[in-house]
Amino acid sequence: MDHTVSHQYASVGHYQVEVVCTNWLDLVSFSDHVSVQVPITNFGLDAALDLTHTGADLTIPWTIDAGSNVTFTASTTSTLMLGDVNYVDGDTQGHVVIPAGYDVGVYDVTVVAENDVSRVALTTRVAIYEAVTGLTLDVSNPYTTINTDIHATANITTGTNVTWLWNWTDVARSSVGSDSGVQTASDSHQYPDVGERSLVLTVSNPVSSMTTYADVGTQTPLSDVTLHVTHMGRPVHPVTFTIETTATTPPTDAVYDFWTGDGAVLNAQSASTLASGESDAVIFQVKHVVV
Q: Is the entire prediction scored with pTM above 0.85?
């Protein structure tokens, strides 16, 4: 014959239940344990793609609306090392901490929340990248003539799935690197007119970014510049040296050094006021008294 009784507990806890059976001849007792818990409700896990790099811990937030004496476990089918899940009874939020030191890759991590009366399992995806480090930039010919390639080469020591963004001031181009490790990339560009610019290179992936720059520019070749002695001098009188240009676009900001033959060196900065196409124009005059 079966006998059933019921009871409601007012608070969470672990209780020992004892049943005593008696008749005229004997007395028998039985005992068991009862766990009274608040069921887990609205367990939530960060559903976005969680990103980190190989040198940093990853934190995956979770939330619950209710639940008592909840145990959290985290697992994955990969070789990803999983850390502890922080939880104190009564907490409504916390996080899974995955320590640094795992391999690059994409992993599905399942977090299970359970107590004696309920169990909920949720899965999130984790992407592990190698951070960008060791960026260097070399421009083999930073200054050249118009419509001539300027060549740039860059290297990184580490970086997973990086994007190389070459910003030449008047145009920007991007390319995608290899999976990971030491990488080299290059780009070249031409400018249609004379001027100073900056090449800005940014190498990035979803977890890191590095930027460097180099000064570049174009100029009129100095082969288009000639030197004339305006007139012959005599001792203790000035002799005028005249620089002339026949270039379509005269050189600007050029520095000219004069060795006069008597031990003196003259230096002058050119003007920047010549009109395009002006020929046989005097840029400046340097006067030196011959002793």
A: no
